[in-house]
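Issue: ligand-bound run for N-oxalylglycine - logging full I/O for the record.

Environment: standard queue, default settings, no custom constraints.

Inputs:
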Amino acid sequence: MLDTQMAAVPTLSLADQARDPERFAADLGGSFRRFGFAVVADHGVPHDLISRAWAETEALFALPKEEKRGYFVEGAGGARGYTPFKTEIAKDAKHVDLKEFWHVGRELPAGHRFAGSMAPNIWPERPEGFKDTFLELFKAFDTAGDRLLSAIATHLGLATDWFDPAVRDGNSVLRLLHYPPIPVDAEGVRAGAHEDINLITLLLGAEEAGLELLDRDSGKWLAVKPPAGAMVVNVGDMLQRLTNHVLPSTTHRVVNPPPERRGHSRYSMPFFLHPAPDFLIETLPQTITPDNPNRYPTPITAHDYLHERLVEIGLIKK
Ligand code: OGA
Ligand code: NI
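Outputs:
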């Protein structure tokens, strides 16, 4: 790669998986190994559902401040419902992030064995249709996530359904994000440099510029620019740990816009795909080699790992 020519994350098509699963798995794995990120078109989440979700998201964040605050659960780590502007802070960062968000979790039947670690959802009274839209979207992300995980399994030499039991009734979270317009004298950035905690993240909305990844080859920040409607998918720390860093979790951030876009909000929807709380994150033996000895000899449950990390980012107080 020439210095003058920046690398770019290639766009893959999830539709190719049906025709040639091995090939799709190799392409996805290659993109992850190189960037920790992939851009995935034809992901199967219906366009009309996504349009409805954007409309509902905008309407939600346009509600009066006090009304939104009524959905903030103090001390619950922002796991469900609303988290106000300037709450989350990237690990070791100086300034809080310039964003507000809403979390939708998995609906579990009453008395489910994970009910103790996966809080029930909170639903806003307005906008109308919010609950239906986001339950449907959650399902669609689950389906896309299962397909991506089966490709990851193939790439790692595991059975295509290896992740099924790991993620069944998993603790995934759908985050609706609003980055408000940026005043000229704003301190901090929309989202400070961080890594995601979960297995993989499936993100819609990155067409509005700002998302950048820290390129491991050049050491430079690289803009992620998906074509309209495509999903940005990245490896989180849990998958990095499971794969002994063969699939790297890459540092990324959301920078403030140039002056001509400062007056505009940015909206995005990441789906943080998590395993079930009792899933044991134990280094896959096939990722341990003489050159890459086991970095995590002590396994940890997904639940304990998540808790440690939420304390670090200020969402749970020690
Ligand atoms: C995140 C994140 C990127 C974006 O919420 O973890 O990296 O484009 N979001 O909003
Ligand atoms: Ni992130």
